[in-house]
Design goal:
The structure is a single chain. By secondary structure, this protein is mostly helical. It has five helices and no strands. Helix 1 runs parallel beside helix 4. The two termini are 17 Å apart.
């Protein structure tokens, strides 16, 4: 999905809790992850059923968590990484 990797990389770089930022970088930005995660659909026939759909869906959830009001920083950043 064009631009998605850059968006996710920026979101990871914006995390303020170093262990979470480090984990997210290791988990998502390594070349070994590309075929399994970045090119997979989120679903076979429904929501984001196209190559890269899983990453797009995950990024959308992460953005929703990052913009949620009232979450303490730790919960917000855990939610972003979990997404």
């Amino acid at each position: 999905v064009p631009g998605l990797l850059g968006q996710v990389a920026c979101m990871i770089d914006s995390l303020t809790i170093e262990p979470l930022r480090s984990f997210a970088r290791r988990a998502l930005l390594k070349k070994e992850v590309v075929p399994g995660y970045w090119q997979s659909p989120a679903s076979r026939h429904h929501h984001h059923a196209f190559p890269g759909g899983l990453a797009k869906h995950s990024a959308e959830v992460a953005v929703a968590v990052s913009t949620a009001n009232g979450l303490p920083l730790l919960e917000q950043e855990l939610g972003i990484v979990y997404a």
